[in-house]
């Protein structure tokens, strides 16, 4: 049981009729100073029901509450202050953490319900952008967090592998490209054709007609068009896989936009049956003015289907295939209106489950405060970022710990972990500036700092020969300086639940930083290895900190080397 749960449990029997568990939990506060207790419960809300002054209510309730789990419980004006029984708390908590191990903080909110997570989803023949990196690591962390609270996440890479751009790409390839060039460096060269197409079609508008014609052929299943398309897709995916491998991230499905080609006729039919399609300048749209949204463009005047049509088909397919309890889309904030439209159209179609669709948006990565832009040459190449991060980590390790075994593997864990952690530590909607040196620092609010704290904890345990801890031992800690660390450890389960409800990995990243900081402060002031009665308990505390740090990092998709 964690600390706050003890407060709820004490209050519930005396308040049972007036307030439910969730409300009590929400009302509990953490006092600003510790002389007011570890937790406080304000009774203002009860004044109406009890028809008494809050001060009086607080006094009367204190008499009734079972205080056996606490050091003391006091009424202070309109508050009830709870002082936890610290020695008892430390013993119970450390036992719980060490015996539940990786399962500490598990919950069953999800009841094994399926949650498809649409994540990463880069576009074929273009480089993976920093935005796609964000979607990949945020989506992966959300999947880990949801699994921990009992859902069954399904990671779907909704590849951008269809659309009019393939007509342009085919034209560009046939005019300026070669098989050898694409084989040698697929993304760079395919992108080149695409960019050149856009330069030349300014003067030469026939190019656009040709591109439209090739895309039409592709949609009609023409042999040559299909062969080129599937080749472009294959070589692009191969180069994306290199990056996913570096990040250690896998997917359950690569069904991209093209997968829904044969599933769109049904969508259009359903829209027609419900009388939702309107003609507008030759195109077919769904009017969404009732939602204060622009119309959803379902079919262009030339019959070509669009991004949102494919997303409608995908949403319906996912509901049928997974019978999801939530359907999550980790996609940049600039697509906010697209997902509002998607939900609105599904609602209009009569699908009550449209409410289970959640767009999880995130902010931009900037450089020197400026938005990145492929056209203006402000691009960050992801593979290079990851390689540079590993190089920086290697240099840092060479300075700090030149004899470290497995140096290469550790440099990889630290460098890649730093990039992932940096992305996840900010509220996901915030924009942030990318500066590699800052990302890989070993001090400050970084991934390496958390990893380093864990490695330090591991080294203490090694020194003490305490790799196996005795589950039956007494883990009572009376030393007040351990209190902040214990409280932080006890908060982990709540943090996991909060992160899962808010789809917000930064809750876990900030928590890990806080735990690491409190532990380092404790360690600087305490002789952990001194031989006295509380030594086993202190080692249990160190082991618990390491375990919870490793868990937090692993929820974020970051490895934690034992030495660094
Ligand atoms: N490929 C799109 C892009 O790069 C993102 C796709 C997001 N997922 C979706 N189901 N619409 O902008």
Automatic annotation (TrEMBL):
One of its GO terms (biological process) is arginyl-tRNA aminoacylation. It holds the Pfam family tRNA-synt_1d. It is an enzyme of class 6 (ligase). The lineage of its organism: Bacteria, Bacillati, Bacillota, Bacilli, Lactobacillales. The keyword Metal-binding does not apply. NCBIfam families: argS. Its main location: cytoplasm. It catalyses: tRNA(Arg) + L-arginine + ATP = L-arginyl-tRNA(Arg) + AMP + diphosphate. GO terms for molecular function: arginine-tRNA ligase activity; ATP binding. One of its GO terms (cellular component) is cytoplasm. A motif ('HIGH' region) lies at residues 122-132. Its EC number is 6.1.1.19. The keyword Aminoacyl-tRNA synthetase applies. Belongs to the class-I aminoacyl-tRNA synthetase family. This is Arginine--tRNA ligase. Keywords: Aminoacyl-tRNA synthetase, ATP-binding, Cytoplasm, Ligase, Nucleotide-binding, Protein biosynthesis. The gene is argS. It is found in: Cytoplasm.
């Amino acid at each position: 049981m964690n600390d706050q749960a003890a407060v709820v449990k004490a209050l519930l029997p005396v308040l049972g009729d007036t307030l439910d568990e969730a409300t009590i939990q929400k009302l509990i506060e953490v006092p600003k100073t510790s002389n007011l207790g570890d937790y406080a419960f304000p009774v203002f809300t009860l004044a109406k029901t009890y028809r008494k002054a809050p001060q009086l209510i607080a006094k009367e309730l204190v008499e009734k509450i079972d205080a056996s789990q606490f050091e003391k419980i006091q009424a202070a004006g309109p508050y009830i202050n709870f002082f936890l029984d610290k020695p008892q708390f430390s013993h119970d908590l450390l036992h719980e953490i060490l015996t539940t191990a990786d399962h500490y903080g598990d919950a069953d909110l999800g009841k094994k319900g399926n949650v498809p997570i649409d994540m990463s989803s880069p576009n074929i023949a273009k480089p993976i952008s920093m935005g796609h990196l964000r979607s990949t690591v945020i989506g992966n962390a959300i999947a880990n967090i949801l699994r921990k609270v009992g859902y069954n996440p399904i990671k779907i890479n909704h590849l951008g592998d269809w659309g009019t751009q393939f007509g342009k790409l085919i034209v560009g390839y046939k005019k300026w490209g070669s098989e050898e060039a694409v084989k040698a460096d697929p993304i760079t060269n395919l992108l080149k054709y695409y960019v050149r197409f856009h330069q030349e079609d300014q003067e030469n508008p026939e190019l656009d007609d040709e591109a439209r014609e090739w895309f039409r052929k592709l949609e009609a299943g023409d042999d040559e068009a299909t062969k080129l398309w599937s080749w472009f897709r294959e070589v692009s995916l191969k180069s994306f896989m290199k990056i996913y491998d570096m990040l250690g991230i896998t997917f359950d499905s690569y069904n991209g936009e093209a997968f829904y080609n044969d599933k769109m006729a049904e969508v259009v039919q359903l829209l027609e049956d419900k009388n939702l399609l309107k003609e507008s300048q030759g195109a077919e749209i769904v009017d969404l003015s009732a939602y204060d949204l622009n119309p959803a463009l379902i079919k262009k005047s030339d019959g070509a289907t669009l991004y949102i049509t494919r997303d409608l088909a995908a949403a319906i397919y996912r509901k049928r295939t997974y019978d999801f309890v939530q359907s999550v889309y980790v996609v940049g904030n600039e697509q906010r209106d697209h997902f509002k439209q998607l939900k609105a159209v599904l609602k209009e179609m009569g699908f009550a489950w449209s409410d289970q669709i959640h767009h999880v948006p995130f902010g931009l990565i900037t450089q020197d405060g400026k938005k990145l832009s492929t056209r203006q040459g402000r691009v960050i190449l992801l593979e290079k970022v990851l390689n540079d991060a590993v190089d920086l980590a290697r240099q840092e390790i060479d300075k700090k710990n030149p004899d470290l075994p497995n140096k290469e593997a550790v440099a990889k864990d630290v460098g890649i972990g730093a990039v992932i952690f940096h992305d996840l530590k900010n509220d996901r909607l915030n924009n942030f500036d990318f500066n590699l040196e800052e990302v890989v620092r070993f001090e400050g609010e970084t991934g390496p700092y958390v990893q380093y704290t864990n490695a330090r904890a591991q080294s203490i345990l090694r020194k003490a020969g305490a790799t196996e801890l005795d589950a039956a031992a007494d883990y009572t800690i009376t030393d007040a300086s351990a209190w902040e660390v214990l409280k932080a450890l006890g908060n982990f389960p709540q943090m996991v639940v909060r992160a899962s409800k808010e789809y917000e990995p930064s809750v876990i990243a900030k928590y890990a930083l806080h735990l690491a900081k409190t532990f380092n402060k404790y360690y600087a002031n305490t002789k952990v290895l001194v031989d006295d009665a509380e030594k086993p308990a202190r080692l249990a505390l160190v082991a618990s900190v390491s375990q919870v740090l490793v868990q937090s990092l692993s929820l974020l998709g970051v490895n934690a080397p034992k030495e660094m």
